[in-house]
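I had to read the description of the data format several times before I understood it. For illustration, here is how one protein appears when written out as sequence plus structure tokens:
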Amino acid sequence: MNNHIEETIYMHTITRFSAAATLAVAALSASAADTAPAAAPATPSYTARSADVESVDGIVAALYDVISGPPGQARDWDRMHSLFMPQGRMMVVSPQKDGSFKPGLMAVEDYIARNGKRLVADGFFETEKARTTESFGQLTHVFSTYEARLGSPAAAPFARGINSIQLYHDGKRWWIASVVWRSEDDKLKLPERYLQTR
């Protein structure tokens, strides 16, 4: 969900890609890292689609689908809210020029406020390339390898990386507790094991 908008979203400096993609990444990196997350609502106030939350496959697919779309297509932000527990958080890990790393912690509403308009204006598509899943009881951790594209799903990816998605099941449905992502860059390449589903 990288610098996921991704502007995903996508935080590493992408000198090989288009100027538009580079600007998108820089804008998101700065705003995500420097602003405190908004307060979460006390109780859930959004109704989820049953297909989105009845399985791990469904909720991960919905997360990617809700932020993706062509230029001019409004995103269903109520749907995005419905995937997350009220206290749910999103966080991007951003490399800094001095070699350190800075977390950009966001509530879902922060993500929407920072990225929503540009997602619609530019068109953005984030897709899952591979997945590694670990589960124990009601807890599931998904290491989801993503690719991000601007304008069209047929465009060449301008970024890829890992979405670390923490899920829990309350006995009735799945919830996203948090999503933490890190983009690939020249110093950190995705290993082969995260390019295959297992």
Notes: The chain has five helices and six strands. The first helix runs from residue 19 to 34. Residues 74 and 120 are 6 Å apart (CA to CA). The first strand starts at residue 84 and ends at 95.
